[in-house]
UniProtKB/TrEMBL annotation:
Protein name according to UniProt: D-3-phosphoglycerate dehydrogenase
Enzyme class name: oxidoreductase
EC number(s) given by UniProt: 1.1.1.95
Family note: Belongs to the D-isomer specific 2-hydroxyacid dehydrogenase family.
Domain ACT residues, every copy: 460-534
Phylogenetic placement of the source organism: Bacteria, Pseudomonadati, Planctomycetota, Planctomycetia, Planctomycetales
Keyword Amino-acid biosynthesis attached: yes
């Protein structure tokens, strides 16, 4: 059974999905997030957690969590999760980007309309018994130019609705293609300042990051059209609130509609809400029955599928991959992981500076970034006490100044698929290449300049030697004398010609004694001996139980 903690209020339909799952032990404690120490203690016996905005997974809360494997945020924003700390702990963090897309897009349009037609103050005046019709003359949206900053799922949904309102839609997003923008009838800009000066209304739909915090600031507000209206249903802080207040006071900003704030609690935003041309709501973007149910179901499914089917969906700190795709990539992940383990052991105490991977053939149709992470986890796990997995291997390597790069070509060479890795140390370069035979058999086919065919599993004795008659028999005799059984042998010769330098790989059934190794090393034609210990054939990968 996998233990799943739900630490915020969650829609009953999501809770039922978790409760009914035969492999999930649900613990529902929606108030526990209010006590960080209690939350931290509970996570020590938890495999997965479903959270909403109330739960703060800080570095302190996540520190030392060895059992926790996955966090699912029932919503889009994950700014309440320390992603760096989670990644270093090897914890997958996922959000539910689809569940509240439509609700947030509709909230944006509603705020835009309410702002331009003075719905809020007009309604309030009626409550107070007045009929101030002339005071609330508004402006129509049709024909106006709107700038949509951030064209992800929600931004695109807003843009489509603005097109339906006959607005001129300009968009800024550094990652959206011009072709995709044209399909959506969006005039795309790569320079945000060039866009902002042309807009009657601006709506922001980016995540809150160091790059987007204060994206709409005093300097940019001064460059916009006088009387520009601003809408923020994304994250508080994207629009600089102090700059906004100054713009409202001066008249440079004609109005603002805000659903999110830097500080979201009663009384914190009274000054903004006091302006008659500001429409404020208390973070209602996802507050529809449909959105709450959808994000709850998505979050529950993410946790269940991760724990029981190894599916990684909507992850924000690693490559998302379905259970079926992960199973298809298993052999390549295993191959890369073993190459990393072997190269780390061959490098020994030499300082590893970096590694380059080359993918050829069939493997290039697989998620090579994830496969590179598998290699990196093998490379680092041999030397580090910390648990290194495909989730945290990249950041762990970066923290230690180890540069990992990759290249790919779909062209095949001698094998239908080939993964080759070169590790650079302070003293030399070491290269190993491997391939797959079927779905279950992994082979070492290259070691530096030598071509060979060795089993890439279990205990391996690698020795360099002169290619002379009688040596193989002498090694076999030595191991036989010391009761060491050789299960397989592979030989690689320099330029594949007799009489030169060579390397041999012996797969052993049991570990040789120090005396046996000294005897092999002492042979006059042997120039080097190293033992490499890899997992047994078909052993599950350590991170996901594959």
């Amino acid at each position: 059974m996998y233990r799943v903690l739900v630490s915020d209020n969650l829609s009953p339909i999501g809770l039922k999905l978790l409760e009914d799952h035969p492999e999930i032990d649900l613990v529902y404690e929606p108030e526990i997030h209010k006590d960080p120490s209690a939350l931290k203690e509970a996570l020590a016996t938890t495999d997965g957690i479903v959270i909403r905005s109330g739960t703060k997974l800080t570095e302190d809360v996540l520190s030392g969590q060895k059992r926790l494997k996955v966090v699912a945020r029932a919503g889009v924003g994950v700014d309440n999760v320390d992603l760096v700390a989670a990644t270093r702990q090897g914890i997958v963090v996922s959000n539910t980007p689809d569940g509240n897309t439509l609700s947030t897009a509709e909230q944006t349009i509603a705020m835009m309309m309410g702002l331009c037609r003075n719905i809020g103050p007009a309604s309030q005046s009626m409550r107070e018994g007045r009929w101030d019709r002339k005071l609330f003359t508004g402006t129509q949206l049709a024909g106006k130019t709107v700038g949509v900053i951030g064209l992800g799922r929600i931004g695109l949904a807003v843009a489509r609705r603005c097109n339906g309102l006959e607005m001129n839609v300009l968009g800024y997003d550094p990652f959206l293609s011009e072709e995709r923008a044209a399909e959506q009838n969006i005039e795309l800009y790569r320079d945000i300042d060039e866009l902002l000066v042309k807009c009657d209304l601006v709506t922001v739909h980016t995540p809150l990051t160091d790059e987007t915090r204060g994206l709409i600031n005093a300097e940019r507000l001064k460059k916009m059209k006088e009387g520009v209206r601003l809408v923020n249903c994304a994250r508080g802080g994207i629009i600089d609130e102090e700059a906004l207040l100054e713009g409202l006071e001066s008249g440079q900003v004609g109005g603002a509609a805000l659903d999110v704030y830097v500080t979201e609690k009663a009384g914190a935003n009274d000054k903004l809400a006091s302006y008659p041309n500001v429409l404020c709501t208390p973070h209602l973007g996802a507050s529809t029955e449909e959105a709450q149910e959808q994000v709850a179901v998505e979050a529950a499914e993410i946790v269940c599928n991760f724990l029981t089917r190894n599916e990684i969906r909507s992850a924000v700190n690693m490559v998302p991959i379905s259970g079926k795709e992960l199973e298809a990539a298993k052999a390549y992940l295993d191959l890369a992981y073993r190459l990393g383990l072997m190269l780390a052991q061959l490098a020994g105490s030499e300082g590893i500076k970096g590694a380059e991977l080359q993918y050829r053939g069939d493997v290039t149709s697989q998620p090579v970034k994830l496969i590179t992470s598998a290699f990196t986890s093998g490379l680092l796990s041999a030397a580090l006490d910390d648990t290194v997995s495909i989730v945290n291997s990249d950041v762990t390597a970066k923290d230690r100044g180890i540069a990992i790069s990759q290249t790919s070509t779909s062209e095949t060479g001698a094998f239908a698929t080939m993964i080759s890795a070169t590790v650079r140390t302070d003293q030399r370069e070491i290269t190993a290449g491997g391939t797959t035979f079927g779905n279950d058999f992994l082979r070492l086919v290259k070691l530096n300049d030598y071509q060979l065919d060795a089993y890439l599993d279990g205990l391996m004795l690698i020795y360099r030697h002169k290619d002379v008659p009688g040596l193989i028999g002498a090694i076999g005799t030595t191991f036989g004398k010391h009761q060491v059984n050789i299960s397989h042998m592979a030989l690689g010769r320099e330029k594949n010609e007799p009489g030169g330098e060579a390397v041999a790989v012996l797969n052993l059934d049991n570990a040789p004694s120090e005396e046996a190794l000294k005897e092999v090393q002492g042979h006059p034609d042997v120039t080097g001996v190293q033992l490499v210990n890899l997992p047994p054939a078909k052993a599950p990968l350590p991170w996901l139980g594959l």
